[in-house]
Here is the input.
Amino acid sequence: MNSVVLCASPRRDGNSRMLAEAFAEGARAAGDTVDLVDLNEVVSGLLRDCRTCRGSDGLCSIGDGYAELMHERLLPADAWVYATPLYYYGMAASLKNFFDRLVCYASASYPRHQEVAEGIRAKRSALLLSAEESNQAAGLAVVNQVQELSRYLHHEFVGGVTGIGNTRGEVRFD
Here is the structure.
């Protein structure tokens, strides 16, 4: 299996990244391939109105790494894993932006939309959530949102892990 882990925390040494690395270590030990992506380094532009900012060639005019991420890393993968901290009872902004920007690549006005529409289906998805609250209900909105996004994208949501930790690295003790 080939998995891409989208790390949404702005902290490279934070608890979400630690969960992502633990996932990667376990998957690699099972013989799988894992690609860890720091979303904050790859996707920087926010979604705009594609009807006004899309280039005349139909391509997204936001000059970051989203297109490469989609076509070269995500579409070939078997699984998409989302690692995010719980920020104000929701996912990190970079992960939300990743989902918002999908519209640019899935819409019929994108020249490679058929490739995206077909390549995005039949994947597995999972959630790695770090939170400082031990109340499991605190992260349910994020779990539900990822489950619904998985349903919409025709992914099989295989589950999630919530790691509790307040300070950096503390999640390893949960």
User: Anything to note?
Assistant: Residues 15-29 form the longest helix (15 residues). The first strand starts at residue 2 and ends at 7. The chain has seven helices and five strands.
